[in-house]
Structure formats: C-alpha cells, structure tokens
Write a structure and sequence with these properties.
Elements lengths: L15 H13 L7 E4 L6 E5 L4 H20 L2 H17 L1 H12 L3 H21 L6 E4 L5 E9 L2 E5 L7 H13 L3 E4 L6 H12 L7 E3 L5 H9 L4 E7 L2 H13 L3 E5 L4 E5 L5 H13 L9 E7 H16 L19 H16 L3 E4 L14 E4 L6 H4 L6 E7 L2 H8 L4 E2 L1 E5 L3 H10 L4 E4 L14 E2 L2 E2 L4 H6 L2 E9 L6
Parallel strand pairs: 5-6, 5-8, 6-7, 8-9, 10-11, 10-16, 11-14, 13-14, 16-17
Antiparallel strand pairs: 1-2, 3-4, 4-20, 9-19, 12-13, 15-18
Helix pairs in contact: 1-4, 2-8, 3-5, 3-6, 3-7, 4-5, 4-7, 5-6, 10-11
Length: about 500
C-alpha cells in the first residue's frame, strides 16, 4: 500500500461564537431537559434533548393535525400561497441561525449549511408559487356526448418521515407541497438531527401556519410509531426518505389502508468520466458529487468509473484535491469537511477502506480516522477498486472516492446498471451525443451531465428500481399530495 499524498492530521476547532449562536437557537425552542439526547458529531457532546414521544402522543398529534386540516383544506389557494411566502421570508431572515444549527447538530461546514438553507427555502418559495396554479382540465368525451372536468383535491393527512443528512431541506421538500395542496402534516424527523425541524416548524407557525396543522413527533420507537400511525384511518399519505429496507416495511404498512406513498430510498450512484471529458470540469464535478455533505448524500457519487485514457491524470488531480481539504468542526471558520454523523459511520469507512485495499485497491490519500473526539474520517481516494469490494457494492455515505477504470462505453453502462438501485447517475463528456445517449441508457431517475449537483426545487427528484417511487420538487411533487377527480357532465343537444 502506497500513499501519494498525506491528509492533514490537525482538525479545525469550532468557532466559539458559532457555538454560542447555535446554542441560543436551541434554547429558544424550550425543549425538555430529558428525553432523546442530540449530540454534536464534532465533539460527542450532548447539546439538547427532544421529547421521546410514545404511541399515544403520536396518535394525539394525528388527531390535532386532522382537525386543523379540515379548515386548511377549505382555505383559498391565495391564502395557502401567502402563508408559504411568509414562511419562506421567515426562513430566509433566519438563514444564519438555521445554518449554525444545522452545523451544530449534523456537522456539515457552515458554507454547506448555508447552501442547504438556500436549497431548503427554495422548495417553500416554489410551492408558494405553485399553490396558485392548480392543475386541471376540461375536455370533451370522444363520442361528444359529455364533457369531462378534472380537478385536484387534497389527499388528506400526510405523515412525513425525514432523514438526518439534510435536516432542513428534507423537511421543507415534504411540508411545503403538503401545505400547498391543502394537507395537514405529522412529521417525524430523524432523532440524530431533529432540532432544525423543530425550529423550522416554529418559524412556520410564526409565519401564519395554523398551530396544530404541523405536528412534530420525535421518538426512539420508530417501528411502533409507524405501525400505529400508518394504520390510523385518518392518515391518507406517507412520504419517506431513507433506506430501502425501511421503505419496504413502510410500504407494507401503507398497503393495509392503501395509502398514497412516496419513497425516496437508497442509491448507488455511478459517475462516468470519458476520455473526451474536460479534465478540470470532471474533477470539480466529481469532487462536488462525492464530497457534498461529506459524502453523506443519497445521490452522492458511489462508483466512479474513469476511462483508461484520462484515468491517470484524473486520479492524480482528484487525489491532490482531496489531500488539501481542511477537516474539522462544521463551525470551524476554515473547515471544508466536517465529521460523519456518528462513530458507527467512522467504523464503516475504515472497514470499506481496509476491505478494498485487501482486494487490490491502491490507497492514495486518507484512509484513516483521527485520534480525537468527534466522528472524523479523512477524505480518501482509492484507485483500481475491484467490483467485488464492499465499497463498490454498498451505498458508501462517507468521504471515500472509489475509482474503477473502464475501456468502452458499453462496458461503463453495463457496469453502472449492475445494481438494484436507480436513484442518480453522472456523465462527464464533451460529446453531446454521447452525453445524451449514455444518460438515456442509465437506469436512474436523475442524471447529472457535466455537473455534480443536479438537485433543484424545479426538478422532479426521485429514483427507479429499488430506489423508490414518487417524486419530490417540481409540479410533480405537488401531485403527490393531490387526488385527481373527474366529473362527467352529460350534454343534451338543445337545438330546435
């Protein structure tokens, strides 16, 4: 095993002023002094406790949301839009508070946390604008004997289950279309990062959202929560972002009452770099696709395929870029890569690295944790990774760039599609025909072409195969919370 570059070993400490700002936001939430502990992944310090709600509390939340939802469903489209615009303005006004809170509880660097606030608030603004543009249609039947009027109505009470990696954006991406469609909400954020959701909902209520319309439930008993709530007849919709195994369990529960279901599940994203790619563009895009959120992203580049002719130059440039990254607390002023979410993730990254090297991969930089508090793992580049390596078969969710090489376009596509997942894929080439042809042949719901961050509030985010069903964002995201109804209006010829 040879190491071309040595990653920096000194971790950047948090800025005390940043900690103070985040903690002042936490204090404003008036959370209990006991319950589920929330920790700063950069230090392991407990920074707050959130309620550990039981099943009875969850069902009470369903009752409150359902009662409030009756009036909200009858509200005008303009009223919903105005409230969402007010919430958007509140969120934007508290950008720094939200960013510091995200960094404190999740660990991402402040620059990325500010980016998440921008991304998350974009969904609120999008659906504030989309709320007043309801879909519908008026048409004649083919035989001319009647007219068909199609309309949309709220699907009903929506249960939203969000992950820990984007604590604001995953909440707003679900809450905003639900409110725009006229639905009440019960939201269960991940217990690792629940504080941002509590704060965002507090701002929503200040902005004019009826107080009982959004209910936040935090619980250590996720299975009991899901079973009780999804089997309640008042619930008509479930939206989940998380792992495929949990998604399957939720779909099984949802089938009992035939709930409308949106599932954004696991990924194993291929990223393909062809010989004719612009080298700097490809390196920049791969860096973003791999290290955004510290690699803890469902659309993060997982299997990096590089064509033989450009591979050596690409690997050298990417490795040099990884080796210069400043690692430390997300609240450190110079931090570029924060901690992983917990110590289990660090153990997993080390296991991936050791397994890949044992099977023939070359470790070029990183490949180690740090002898310090916090859940840190060095940005890592592995070259010549074999297809039977664990890191090539798993959703990495960490800062490891696992590079494989290929010769032909057909080979790259075949290997890229050899997975049960189909969330995102990436293509880097300066040939437009190749870019579009390869994108068409990739079995994914999302394709980034010459860019590493394809997500956008105006785009229908979601996967195929075992990566889920339904879409979030765009007009399609609003439809997930609407019933489509049609009226058949008989017509009679009144001509004398």
């Amino acid at each position: 095993m040879s190491t071309t570059f040595e990653s920096a070993t000194a971790l950047i400490a948090a800025d005390p002023a940043g900690i103070q700002r985040a903690d002042s936001v936490i204090q404003s939430l008036n959370l209990p002094g006991s319950g589920i502990a929330v920790q700063d992944p950069a230090t392991g310090e407990t920074i707050a406790h959130v309620p550990d709600h039981d099943v009875e509390a969850a069902l009470e939340a369903v009752a409150k949301a359902d009662k409030a939802g009756a009036a909200w469903a009858k509200s005008s489209l303009r009223q919903r839009a105005d409230v969402l615009h007010a919430w958007y303005n509140k969120l934007v006004a508290h950008t720094e508070d939200l960013a510091h809170l995200i960094s404190r509880e999740m660990g991402k660097p402040l620059a990325e946390a500010r980016g998440e606030v921008k991304y998350g608030t974009d969904f609120v603004r999008w659906y504030a604008e989309e709320a007043v543009r309801p879909a519908g249609n008026f048409r004649e039947t083919p035989d001319g004997g009647a007219s068909l009027l199609t309309r949309r109505s709220p699907v009903g009470l929506a249960v939203l289950i969000t992950p820990w990696n984007f604590p604001l954006a995953m909440a707003t991406r679900k809450i905003a279309p639900a409110l725009a469609a006229g639905c009440p909400v019960v939201i269960k954020p991940a217990t690792l990062t629940p504080l941002t959701t509590y704060f965002a909902v507090q701002l929503a209520i200040e902005a004019g959202v009826p107080e009982d319309l959004i209910q936040v439930i935090t619980t250590s008993k996720s299975g009991a929560f899901s079973e009780a709530v999804l089997l309640d007849p008042r619930v008509r919709k479930v939206s989940f972002t998380g792992s495929t195994p949990v998604g399957r369990q939720l779909l099984n529960l949802a089938s009992q009452n035939v709930l409308r279901s949106s599932m954004e599940l696991g990924g194993n994203a291929p990223l393909i770099v062809f010989n004719d790619a612009d080298l700097q563009r490809a390196v920049d895009g791969t860096f973003a696709a791999k290290l955004r959120n510290g690699g803890q992203s469902c659309i993060g580049a997982n299997r990096i395929y590089v064509q033989d002719g450009i591979a050596d130059d690409f690997v050298a440039a990417l490795t040099e870029r990884f080796a210069r990254i400043n690692v430390g607390s997300g609240l450190g002023t110079q931090t570029e890569l924060g901690p992983l979410i917990d110590d289990r993730a660090v153990t997993q990254m080390q296991a991936y690295t050791d397994n890949a090297v044992a099977l023939g991969a070359t470790l070029l930089t990183g490949g180690h944790g740090y002898d310090s508090p916090g859940n840190f793992f060095a940005p890592t580049v592995l070259d010549h990774v074999t297809e039977d390596s664990d890191v090539a078969k798993s959703e990495i969710f960490g800062p490891i760039a696992a590079i494989q090489r290929f010769s032909t376009e057909t080979e790259a596509i075949t290997r890229a599609n050899a997975t049960e997942f189909g969330l995102a894929g990436y293509v880097f080439t300066e040939n437009l025909d190749r870019a579009l042809n390869v994108a068409d042949r990739l079995e994914t719901g999302i394709v980034g072409i010459n860019q590493g961050v394809p997500s956008n509030a105006g785009a229908p985010f979601g996967g195929i195969k075992q990566s889920g069903l339904g879409r979030e964002g765009s007009a399609e995201g609003l439809e997930e919370y609407e019933n489509i109804r049609f009226y058949n209006i008989a017509r009679r010829d009144t001509a004398q």
